[in-house]
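Hello again,

I reread your note about wanting to compare the complex against the isolated chains. To keep things tidy I'm splitting this into two emails, and this first one only covers the full assembly. Below are the input lines as submitted, including protein chains and any nucleic acid or small-molecule components. They are followed by the predicted structure of everything together. The single-chain runs will come separately.
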Amino acid sequence: MNHFDLTAHAWLDLFQSGKATPQEAADAVLQRASQVNAKTNAFIRLNDKVRAQGGPCPVAIAIKDNICVNGHLTTCGSKILEGFIPPYDACVVEKIKAAGGIILGSANMDEFAFGSSCETSAYGPARNPWALDRVPGGSSGGSAASVAAGQAVWALGSDTGGSIRQPASFCGVVGLKPTYGRVSRYGLIAFGSSLDQIGPITKDVKDCAKLLAIIAGFDERDSTSVNVPVPDYAAALVKDVKGLRIGVPKEYFIDGIEPDVLAAVQKAVQYYRDHGAVIVNVNLPHTEYALATYYIIATAEASSNLARFDGVAFGLRAAPSKVRKNPLMDMYEETRARGFGDEAKRRIMLGTYVLSSGYYDAYYLRAQKVRTLIKQDFENAFQACDVILSPTSPTTAFKVGEKISDPLAMYLSDVFTIPANMAGVPAISLPCGFDRSKLPVGLQLMARPFAEDVLLRAAYAYEQATGWHRERAVL
Amino acid sequence: MTTFETVIGLEVHLQLKTKTKIFCGCRNEFGHEPNTNVCPVCLGLPGTLPVLNRQVLLDGVKVGLALNCTINNFVKFDRKNYFYPDLPKGYQISQFDLPIARQGYLDIVVDGTSKRIGITRAHLEEDAGKLVHDAVNNGSLVDYNRTGTPLVEIVSEPDLRSAQEAYEYLTALKLTLSYLGVSDCDMEKGSLRCDANVSIRPVGQEKLGTKTELKNLNSFSALKRAVEFEVTRQTGVILSGGQVVQETLLWNDDQGAAVAMRSKEQAHDYRYFPEPDLVPFTLEANQVQLLREGLPELPYVKLARFMARYGLNHYDAFILVQDQGLASFFEVCVKAHADAKKVANWLIGPLMKEMNERKKSFIGMSLTPQAMVAIIQKVETGVISNVIGKEVLALVLDTGKAVDAIIEEKGLAQVSDDEALGKVVDDIIAANPAAVAEIKGGKTGAIGFLVGQALKKMQGKANPKKINEILSRRLQDV
Amino acid sequence: MVDDKTVRYIAALARLHIEAADEGKFARELEAILHYVEKLGVLDVTAVKPTSHVLDVENVFRDDAVKPGLSQEQALAFSVDKLNGSYKVPRVIE
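Full-complex prediction:
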């Protein structure tokens, strides 16, 4: 195995035994990142050099471009944040730095996390390391691609409707969306504030547990971060699923799932059954409404969250060549017209529309009520099971350009990941095989709020038994 | 001819004087250089999040209770979305459907009659920054120091029927709020700001007329003038067959006129929705009860009590309660000096004169009740004259020295010594033969003149009663 | 029905300049998405409480204590245009 393909825990073992130093490791990974970035475009910006500072976990990490790093350009994959250098670290970045983490650069993403393919980035699309003519998924496509391509030991992504899990699935890596409130959002440039969570994207489940342990916990700067103790996630890593009740929701096994994806996921169900887990049928009857609910709530929040990108204090400012309305109005409208891409504009307009006078009740309020129903679905299902199992996405990675002109088709890629955000529950995607084109398939597991340890246990046992995580893309 | 009735509702913004801003740890202070009292949170930088200052919620409850409101035990915050350069996030965090307080009232007195003005709601929100226009060519400057200052917005029912009533309401509101100690309530400094919604309708008509909103009412008198102006204008529009247009008007107090604000021409569509970055807040009933019990005695309750308990007339009691510190001082003084009317007179007269000259409220004066009572007693017992008493008060305030020490040092005690006063009276009689002759001729009015002359000569340090006695005796002898 | 006029209204509210030639495209796309989300209309939600926060958390406060902020230099470091310690914007017409 190449050095750049090593997991964080493998590197830590080498540091421990004196066979490598954190600086050597970081240099090796940075070199790999620079070498192949022209192919993957996983990084929007890559640091020239890196310096290991010591600490318990001195591992090279890719940070999604919507997570603020003090003194470093942070642009959310958008032109509108041109020149924005935050004078503060996100909470998770503080924690990474405190653990000795070495930041490699900013990972590519769909503009403002609006997308499922990483194609809406203002800095060019990222590519899937398993097939460069395919998308890495999105919106954390750069994060997932960087880990899959050995350009980073691990990465941070953010997940509003599947933006960690779907790219993890497409790139054959592990991605976890924590319980809403488990990880501080302070310093994460908001998309859908009631849905967003930062989470780890790693090469295996053990690394996932390790990175989650670093970033999880209460933060007084985020009113929605929850003050409950962080369990010992490493202790959850046992190869035993006996007695674990695995729920299989029929609503997630629908027409439109690619046969190879379905087969791989069904094999995973078989694994759990064979190893002493109890497979139960559960119902999540409002699943088919989750996507519609999501597109109302997430865009409404986004339309408001993105109002601060107005050219007044920071980022891009533009003005039309001749006066249209008045100087201030022209500045606002031109800045935002030039700074945002089409998908951002679409979502801002949709969000503005559903909140506007006369439509609030029909769209936004109704969506919030349906959100309650979706949340109740999960509460009911978790009476009967400990983990809910599904495909992460109905398909494997699609071709660059294949869905970009059809927003709704693109949105359907997130149909299985969105419900976890709506309900706030934790969910993980991990590799569960390949399709006939040797493209990775992802398995999604969901659990009760704050039961990340249960997810990790179920995922770890499966991963260790199947070994899918040891497969690497060849570039 | 149709007669019209004026309908006014006021929206008052009150800045709370907590130590820090509503959602971040920046100091809640003014007068700093532009953009020096800011942080990533109040600048609305990407990725930052608000966290509510506990004191703001508590102060908001106090305001609601003081205005006889029902306190909502479940409150939440909402985003009010609009673009303006003084609003860095592109939305203001405010409260929409679940404000902290609702359905209160405030009693005012108009032409000697009490009238109850309804208060629709009071809610918490963040203040915006400050824009300086015309400072530079083709540009405006933005200072975000004020951004995030905690505000309570108090919305009245459209119960006010004249500019005078609006004036009285604002006066009563300010007085009530000033007692809570949660705000400076200073209109000049902007810690109390007022907008007025004004409409007119034919007398007897139920339906409200089209209203206009008056902004930039920076003083009590501006409120009154602006409303009078607007009522006249609207009446003119309707009488000439026109229709009042719903618009926002900017009052120019120097010109005595209001003009439509161009920035408000566009239809408002604030797209309120629950603020996802803040969780809801529950106020326990016992928590509210504790705050209720902790409220100070409010001014109109105090006024009634002063009249009943101390026998003050409405005028005196009203003046005393205008200054919470002065009112408390009055009560302490009265404990040491039972003549409440006399104490009130000293406070309302000489003491308030000194406060006005020093441009201070009572709290800024260093005066102990012991000193005040001592002065009153010295005058009563004739140690010093009334005039000298006022002088001693000024000296106590200036120097902080004890009353006795000042009288001693400056030799201000009255001369009651017969011999010394006799000499002075003799001199006066000798120097004013004409007056003496008049008195002898039966015109006793000139006695006062001679007493005055003697007092003048003694620089006020003589006991006027004593002078009168001696003078009468000597005149008989002459 | 989302038409060009709606697009113009929404775009103006959102402070987005949309070229006249693009109004039709945005109208069609918005219409398609709104048509899709209309499926929520089949659910009876009259008795359902809305969810704004998935968390069952209330009363998160901070104490009224001062924390250091930014210097003027730091505050203006990322500014687009500045003058005399302030952010400068095109002239605002009240």
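For quick reference: Chain B touches chain A through 30 residues (CB under 8 Å).

B.
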